């Protein structure tokens, strides 16, 4: 009996490995890049979820032509209820409203809630519903984007999902540090194109993105990735650095290629700063980061743990002249599994403010140093060993 159980477990693990390997191969073969040339736009940065929600909900309620929304996660609480009510009220008034949510991230949108959306006239679909073949791989492939487009004129993109956790009302995490952009100008047409591509894959409906406006004051790029290009793009950023690299991310699990690029940057005199949260929302992500952080620390990197809440920001700043803000984390899931969307900004005044905000958070953060390493608990050390096996999924 015991032998049978062991053989069954081995067979099950083998099937999962093959499912993941073959699913990955098919994913790469069928990869559909979204071409997005350099564009321009205007932007406003949000670091506070309450302020973001207030303005975004208000602008949705004032929409005249259409509202297109994609979120990775919508919770089941009073914030999400308010958000869904805004969408339903808009649809009842005759404005086309489309809502797309990741199948796993949107699991709290139950059948009753979906019926209410449909009855109000909201077009609703789940994205990335797992299925066969390659169920295990497809279960891990998520659409992690967060995009809102209002009347084809205003867009929102960044790290905030929808729920009370994101306004600091989580007993576990407290204050929530994140970044989100409000966009206007030609760039809105590009993020609309990304959202409608996801809509087509979920619904089968082909829609035309809004026409680019002509009021963009700053050069920008939108990078939409699908688990194929992001590692290469991050490597290009790192290799371009001459003076300074700032990385803010909730999860730091680089590939060997990116870890080597960061070490090479330090060797050529580039200052490397990394900030991650002290608190963790998943059991193995922080232990998985420690070996990489330790190696970079010993090379001379400055590494800090944000401890005034939960650090969910996803930013990279290079030499004070380039900033990447979006949905992608510095981890294997974003590099090889998730759909992500990021904004490249080149405005040095904006980047100066963003850089100042980064160091303001870093000033009160806890240093990653030898003292901290020596104080690691037995559980943390054990989880580090387990996390080595889980890196492809983290």
Strand content: 15-25%
Might you state the CATH topology name of the largest domain? Answer: Endonuclease, Chain A
CATH class assignment of the largest domain: Alpha Beta
SSE ordering = HEHEHEHEHEEEEHEHEHEHEEEEHEHEHH
> How far from one another are the termini?
34 Å
Give the CATH architecture of the largest domain.
2-Layer Sandwich
Q: State the shape.
A: globular
- The CATH superfamily of the largest domain is Endonuclease Chain A
Number of helices: 13
Q: Which range best describes the helical content: under 10%, 10-25%, 25-40%, 40-55%, 55-70% or over 70%? A: 40-55%
What is the alpha-carbon Rg in Å? 21 Å
Secondary structure elements and pairings:
Blueprint: H1 2-29, E1 39-46, H2 49-61, E2 67-71, H3 78-92, E3 97-102, H4 111-120, E4 123-127, H5 135-140, E5 147-150, E6 154-158, E7 176-177, E8 180-184, H6 187-203, E9 218-226, H7 230-240, E10 244-248, H8 256-267, E11 271-277, H9 285-299, E12 302-306, E13 310-311, E14 315-318, E15 322-326, H10 332-336, E16 339-345, H11 348-363, E17 366-367, H12 370-374, H13 378-390
Parallel strand pairs: 2-3, 3-4, 7-13, 10-11, 11-12
Antiparallel strand pairs: 1-8, 1-9, 2-5, 5-6, 6-8, 9-16, 10-14, 12-17, 14-15, 15-16
Helix pairs in contact: 7-8, 9-13
Q: Brief description of this entry?
A:
The protein is α/β, with parallel strands linked by helices and 394 residues long. It has helices at 2-29, 49-61, 78-92, 111-120, 135-140, 187-203, 230-240, 256-267, 285-299, 332-336, 348-363, 370-374, 378-390, and strands at residues 39-46, 67-71, 97-102, 123-127, 147-150, 154-158, 176-177, 180-184, 218-226, 244-248, 271-277, 302-306, 310-311, 315-318, 322-326, 339-345, 366-367. The chain folds into 2 domains: 33-218, Endonuclease Chain A (Endonuclease, Chain A, 2-Layer Sandwich), CATH 3.30.870.10; 227-393, Endonuclease, Chain A (2-Layer Sandwich), CATH 3.30.870.10.
């Amino acid at each position: 009996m015991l032998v049978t159980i062991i053989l069954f477990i081995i067979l099950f693990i083998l099937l999962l490995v093959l499912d993941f390997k073959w699913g990955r191969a098919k994913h790469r073969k069928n990869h559909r890049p979204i071409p997005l040339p350099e564009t321009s736009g205007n932007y406003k940065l949000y670091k506070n979820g309450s302020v973001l929600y207030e303005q975004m909900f208000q602008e949705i309620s004032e929409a005249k032509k259409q509202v297109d929304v994609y979120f990775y996660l919508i919770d089941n609480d009073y914030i999400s209820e308010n958000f869904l009510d805004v969408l339903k009220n808009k649809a009842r008034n005759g404005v086309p409203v489309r809502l797309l949510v990741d199948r796993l991230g949107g699991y709290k949108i139950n059948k009753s809630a979906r019926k209410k959306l449909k009855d109000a006239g909201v077009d609703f679909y789940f994205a990335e519903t797992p299925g066969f073949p390659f169920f295990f791989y497809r279960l891990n492939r998520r659409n992690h984007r967060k995009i809102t487009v209002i009347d084809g004129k205003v867009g929102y993109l960044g790290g905030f999902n929808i729920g009370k956790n994101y306004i600091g009302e989580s007993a576990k995490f407290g204050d929530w540090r994140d970044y989100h952009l409000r966009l206007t100008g030609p760039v809105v047409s590009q993020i609309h194109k990304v959202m409608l591509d996801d809509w087509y894959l979920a619904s089968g409906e082909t829609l035309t993105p809004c026409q680019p406006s002509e009021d963009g004051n700053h050069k920008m790029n939108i990078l939409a990735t699908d688990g194929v290009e992001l590692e290469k793009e991050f490597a290009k950023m790192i290799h371009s650095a001459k003076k300074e690299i700032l990385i803010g991310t909730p999860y730091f699990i680089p590939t060997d290629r990116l870890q080597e690029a960061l070490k090479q940057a330090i060797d050529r005199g580039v200052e490397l700063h990394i900030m991650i949260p002290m608190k963790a929302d998943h059991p193995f992500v922080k232990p998985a980061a420690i070996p990489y952080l330790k190696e970079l620390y010993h090379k001379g990197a400055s590494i800090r743990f944000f401890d005034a809440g939960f650090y969910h920001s996803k930013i990279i700043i290079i030499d004070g002249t380039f900033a990447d803000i979006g949905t992608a984390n510095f981890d294997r899931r974003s590099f090889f599994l998730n759909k992500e969307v990021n904004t490249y900004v080149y405005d040095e005044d904006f980047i100066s403010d963003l850089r100042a905000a980064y160091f303001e958070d870093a000033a009160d953060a806890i240093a990653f140093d030898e003292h901290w390493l020596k104080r690691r608990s037995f559980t943390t050390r054990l989880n580090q060993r387990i996390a080595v096996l889980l890196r492809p999924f983290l």
